[in-house]
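P.,

For your records, the input lines for the assembly:
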Amino acid sequence: MRARIAAATLLLWTSGASADPFEQTFVVEPDVRVDVEIVSGRIELRGGSANELRVRANSELRVDGSRRRISLRAPSAGGWAPWAGSTEVHVEIDLPRESRIVARAINGKIEARDVAGEPDLHAANGAIEVEGAPREAYLETMNAPIKFEGRRSSVVAKTLNGSIELEGVSGEVEAQTVSGKIKVEGEELERAELRTMAGEIELATSLAKGARISARSFSGAVKLSLPEGTSARFDVQSFSGGIESEFSSRLADDDESRHGFGKHGPGGRPLSFVVGDGDARISIESFSGGVKIEED
Amino acid sequence: MRRWLRWRRTPELSPEEQAAIDAIAARARALPREAEPERDLWLGIRNRIELAREPAPARPRVWRTRVSVPVWAASAAALLVLATSIGTGWWLARPPSLDDPAAVRALADSLRDRDGMSGTRENLLALLGERRDQLPPEVVAAVEKNLAEIDRAIAEIHLAFEEHPNNAALQFLLAEAYRREADMLEQLEWWTSTVAREPEAHS
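Structure tokens returned:
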């Protein structure tokens, strides 16, 4: 093994392909950039403390790069529809936790565990699952769910057809789907944009001072859970659903204090109210779903 | 029915009878016009109605030469015409069924045209048609399903606008529907362009 690592380091491998199955280990920088591409199959990424990158695959891989940047690609069958005749490639990569990962699968799932770099993951027809403590993550698929468990991470998650579930987020969060539910659990959110056409939105978080939160669903309910002592101005509109809040609030356009305003009927009338000093701004719109704001 | 046919064939109305019918017609003109189809939502239907309203070829006036129907019968006939017209207008103006995907899509397309937003959908469909084989069938199915979701949203929002024309939430939601469509186009473009270079990349 040591010999293999040393050889790889000295040669700064420009290309390497091995027989099936594939297994190689390379010495890399702690923040190495890793590009992985497959057509069909599965990509599994696992962060660790060693400054080496260990790759296992059930078929041939093409490897290029250096200690600072490495690229791994599974050959496709080519042709006009490369996904169609391609073999299923299962790639497992152990890499430094701080690696900057770019992974792409057309027809397959991407999983990343114990990563702390900045994963940039794209799948066309496959789920994306990330667990770790990345500072930032960009996750995009078209026909599958996205699941993220982080620690104070900023995340952009986009899918067309699937749910989005984000935990342990902070700072800036963007979640967009057309058909699917969005569920976000975070803390000290500074900015959040949550968008779905057909699905519910659930957001449970504390807010940073001056936070800007926007949740918009066409045919799903929107539920917010905010801690006691939240200070925000709410602008809420639901065309055909009710609006309910547990917070003691006062109407934004009325000096008269109100302690909870109960349920508001449908009809699309906007409702603006202030909780606390109102320094954060929360905007919620739904067409046919109700809006519920809970106090934790 | 027999009387109705006879009345239509009768050649001329007496002054009293003509006055009675004129009075009914005046009342009809004074009725509210809510039943008239809206131009924006019902462009196709409206066009058909307006086509139907184009002046018909001049008819021989022989039927006006004489009439012998009593006033009450003429009034009843005129009311029947009036009720039929209002009923037809109401039927045409009623909300469309959103259970029919083809009808929803046609309605959404006409609304996109009106909003000046049809370019994105056209580009999206062109791209999907051109590169459909480059994407997994499940992705194509998901895109088509989502296009239908967006169509439905656009149609429902516009119908809601009929009752709440200045509702800000509806405007936000409509903009969001168009934005989702643009996002879909962007994602499809990105994926199909990357898939297109796959054979070269992996050769």
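Two observations worth noting. Chain A has two helices and 24 strands. Chain A touches chain B through 44 residues (CB under 8 Å).

Regards
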